[in-house]
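Exam revision sheet. Question 4 asks you to relate a sequence to its structure. Input first:
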Amino acid sequence: MVQPVNTIVFEWDDLSFASGYKFEFADNPGFVQPETLSLNSSSRDKDTVNMDIGKKYFWRIAVSAPNVPEVYGPSHSFFYGSPLLRAAILAPVYGAIVPNPVRISWDYPGAALYYVQIATGSNFSQLVFDSWVNVDHGDIMLSADTTYYIRVIPGDANGNYLVGLWSYIYKFTTAP
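Answer key, structure tokens:
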């Protein structure tokens, strides 16, 4: 998938026996009330004017061919939004030993909220902070001489993710 300024181009492998394709596009995984188009080529340009930033969209293709039942293939999905795929963690620096209170900061253009997780393990099963926040930085008191991991995902004002990926995980240690 290629995303120019106001158009998304969907492409798929052309099948030699196909006489055409049916393209479905929806804002839900069940394809309830999809936009459906019959096409003669293996690509489709989609205007993005009516697409919501931060929303997840779904698309799928069915092959049209003589004597072949029309069955849709697997669906594909993507988040429509900024071309940036992840929020950036700005502080602390990866691997740093930092004093308390720990200054943490992150960035993602256009985000109104950020979902922040800080944990004592890289699998984030033991969270010490797990919340939406409406700022891109903060100071937090953490236990001394402990290694922590942080990740962030940006959101809009309603708490919808703007992208589908967490930031890269950053590791830091608090000073003794």
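Marking note for examiners. Confidence is low (pLDDT under 50) at residues 1-5.
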